[in-house]
Structures are given as structure tokens and as C-alpha cells.
Amino acid sequence: MSRSISDSDLVSTFAHLGIDRDSAAHYAGRLEHLLLINRCGECSTYHHPPRPMCAKCWSTDVAATEVTGNGVIDLLIFLHQGPQAPGVDYSTPYPVASVALDEQAGLRFTATVIGSPNEEIAIGQRVTLDWFDRAGVPTPAFRLVGGAA
Amino acid sequence: MSTSSRNPMKDLVAFAGAATTGFSAHNTDRTPLSLAAEACSKLLRECGLKASDIDGICGPSSVSAGDLQNTLGIPELTWWSNPPIPFVNQVIQAASAVHAGVCDTVLVYHVPYRHAFFTASALRDPFRRVMPAIAPGGNPDTMWGPIGYTAWASRYIHDYNVPKERFGLVAINDRSNAQDNPGAAMREPMTMDDYMSARMVRWPLCLLDMDVPVDGADAFIITTTERARDLPFSPVMINAAVLGMVDANVEDQTVSLEHHGHHVVAKALKAKSDFWIDDIDVYFPYDGFTIITLNWLENIGFCGRGEAGDFLAANWDAEKNRILINGRIPVNPHGGALSEGGTQGSGHIREAIHQLQGRAGVRQVANARRTLVTAGGFFYNAQGLALHRD
Ligand SMILES: [Zn+2]
Q1: B201 touches chain A (CB under 8 A)
Q2: Domain range spanning residue A85?
């Protein structure tokens, strides 16, 4: 796949997230504000994190495919402490949510939640995808949809 | 998939003994190798074994088998391995090597250590800072590893409306038990107020929901049951041992708390062993996080989904402020990972052996003959061990 960024620059941008050749397309998508999730070209099943093969049919025809990022919060925590990251000081507990994506039952993507006070964020709420910059790198996040659930 | 009951190793391999350095929740001025060598040499002396009696070594990758062999002057090995923890993995590999005849007598060890990743105070020790990192850093947007337990604890509370005090019973049980264990790192009594007011780390789990990073070591001898009968302590036979993992084993992709590694372990261990939860005298569920213990109680069959907290309250020994299942079965009598120290299962197995050998001192469960150790967590490290004596 052709990319506008060199492998070397891509790896150095996402080294702290454990990028490898199987996840490179997903991370390259972030630079374009695209949430790309691996999807099987044979049976259309999505999976995440990116693997080199479809677990359902063993096809290697898997491609990072854009998803809407719309879904429902399935798992939710608030970090009162955590790893050093630009712009995160944990003095306000930092929300992390695993969101069940609308594209496929059981398919989840994990990111922070922005744009709402912590008290308003809860399991079961609908969210949509948004992006923010962390140290200049586009980073996916979720935003609550339509106020209270 | 059908669960196999095939178990040709059953009762033919045994623990001959176990020993520990005891554990400290502060940085010691000791290396992991120094702690391992202390526990191992102590155990070899107790068992009346010479260095030349050992022909196998197995422990975690943090102390290589070769370094330990060299340190203890064990002249020749025909087998060694340094597989990943938790510790039932070391047990299964060593027992399998003995059963296969690759070696006869294995020195098995574990060294829980306050690696710089775990705590800020460990990070202040320059010798610990230069040790290889064991976990990724710099990304808060993940449910990776330990964070995944917090995520599923949150979901458990949401789904079953479980009050946080129910989690506290797991922590208080461990702390009450640790008061009888001189080797435990945390022995001060803990009240429910202490638990509920502990510092929040990752909501909804607080400091006292998480195991204590410690320095220390455990050592074990695994050999044939026949050979163990010639040694000073009664053999503790491995009746069955399994690991368990499902395909959806990534933390944030786990299907639910009703479908993960625990369920594979429960099914396979039950199929391969000769006894089950009603037959045991003491129980060792893993407690690296309080949620793991609650979920083990449900997954192994003591109670239904979401009922573990109520089960603990109904099986609470008010006099000793601890769990006593059916008025009879203590749980983690050594203090577990939350109070003896985070041993990744080695402390649970060491205490199981001491209980079955009648060597548990003031903690001794009268006539303890059978136990289950259900180690590890949900995602990629669930494990089970059925142990008994004659
Ligand atoms: Zn497929």
C-alpha cells in the first residue's frame, strides 16, 4: 500500500504505541483522521487489534477499512494516575472507554472521551468519533452524542 | 470443542517441598538472583538435597536458569526453562519434564520483584531503572494488561449493581490472614473504612484492590511422587494442572466476564481432576485484583453470576474477620497477593504445599488433604492446579 509518509517516519511517530507492519495501515490512517479497522475481503468480518489473517476464515486478504466510529460505551474507567503523556495530568481523572462499534457486534475500539465532564460519561451511552492532537499527532477520541443517554 | 479428561501424569509427579524468603513491600538492596538463591538454598537444605541431586531448573525469565545454576553450583542439568508467569506455567513445564523423563528433580523458583514499572519508589532505585522494561509506557488510551481488570471491574459493578464494599471483603480477608504470616509484606489490620477511603488509582479500583509490589522469592522441588516419598516431607501430588485461554483474549475485545480463560480452566481442571470444590479443605483463588477473586468464585462454581460479593458476606467468619466457605474452607490463608505480596501465584502454591504437608504453623488448616489453586486473570494467563496428599 502506498503511503504519503515514509515507514521510518511512521514508525518513529507511533513507536510508543507498539506499531508493527500488521498495524501500520491503522496508524497511517490516524494521520488522515481516519479510523481504520482491519476487515476481511473474503467474509467481511472486522477484527481489532490488527492481525495478519482473518480469524473467521483464515483469509490473508485483510485490509484496514474506515469505520464510522459510532457506537456505545461498553467499558469505562477513569485514570487517577497513569503514564506520562502530553496534556494529561490526571488531576481531573482521565476517562478511557472501550466502545462497541456499530459496524459489528462485539467489535470494540478504546480511546479517551472528550467534550463532556466526567460525571456525564457512563457505560451504555452513545458516542461518535472525534480527533485531537497529542504532541502534534492526530489521536482518536469519542464524544457523547445528543447529551444525556 | 470437547474438554479432554486425558491426564496420564495424574499423581505421578509431586512437590517435595517449598520455601520462601518472605516478602517486603519496600525496595531491598538485593538483586532478584540473590533472593532466588536464598530461597533455593534454604529449600535444598530443608529437603536434605545436594546440588548434584538437581538436574532441572525452571523459573521466570527475570532470573535465568543458567545464572541460578551457576550461583548455586549445580553441576549438571538435563533440562531448564524460563517460561512466562503466572507460576502454574512453571509448575506445568517442570512437572511435564519430570513425567517425560527429561529430568528427575527440578528446582523451581519465582522472584516477585519491585520492578521500576510498578511504583514510583521502585523507579527511584537506579539499579532498578536500568533493568529491562516489562511493560509499554506513554499511552493512556488503552485497556492493556492491569488496566483491563479495572475495565471489567467497572463493567461488573454496572451489570450486577455490586457495592464496592463487596470488593473490600476480598482485601480484608487477605489482610486478616496475613496477620498470621510472618513473611507477609502487609500485616496491619484493615477495616472497611480503610478500604473505602484508600487512594483511587484507576476508578473504580483503589490502591487496596491491587496486589502489593514486593521483593522476595519462593522455591519448590518438583520430582516423581516415588522419589518424593524418600524425602523428609510428605509429597503433594499434582492431580491435575491446566492453563486456559480463549480466542478473544485481548483486554478490550473480551466477549464478557462469562467467557474468558477462567471458564476454560474450570472446565478442563474439573474434567482432569479427581476432586472438586466440595472436596477441598482450603482454596486459593488468584487475587492480583479483587475483581479476579470475585469472578473466580463464580467461575469455579461456588456461586452464580454477580453473586460472589453476597457469597462472601454469607460465608464471613466475623470472629476472625475473614472468609470461611461453608464454615470450613479458608481462602488464601497466607494473605494472598493483596497482603502477602504480588507473587503471580507462587505464594498461593507455596502455601498450598505447606498446608497439605502440615507445615503451615499457626495458619494450619486441620487435616488439610486437598486444595484447588485457580491462578491468573481473564485474558491470557488463567491457570488451575489440583493438589492433594495421601
Ligand atoms: Zn474472513
Answers
A1: yes
A2: 71-144
One domain for residues A88 and A43: no
Considering the domain architecture, whether residues A86 and A37 belong to the same structural domain is answered as no
Ligand 1 center–CA A95 separation, angstroms:
33
Residues A77 and A42 in one domain: no
State the total domains in chain A. 2
Mean pLDDT of B154-174: 98
Q: Is there a contact between B128 and B119 (Cβ–Cβ < 8 Å)?
A: no
The 10s digit of each residue's pLDDT in B291-342 is: 999 999 999 999 999 999 999 999 999 999 999 999 999 999 999 999 999 9
For the entire predicted model, the pTM comes to 0.95
What percent of chain B has pLDDT above 70?
A: 98
Chain B residues with CB under 8 Å of A49 CB are: 250, 253
Any residues with CB less than 8 A from the CB of B136 and at least 6 apart, and which?
A16, A17, A18, B144
**In this complex, do A75 and B151 lie within 8 Å of one another by their Cβ atoms?**
yes
Taking an 8 Å cut-off on Cβ atoms, the answer to whether B139 and A17 are in contact is yes
Pair (A56, A89) in one structural domain: no
DSSP A23-56: THHHHHHHHTT--EEEEETTT--EESS--SS-TT
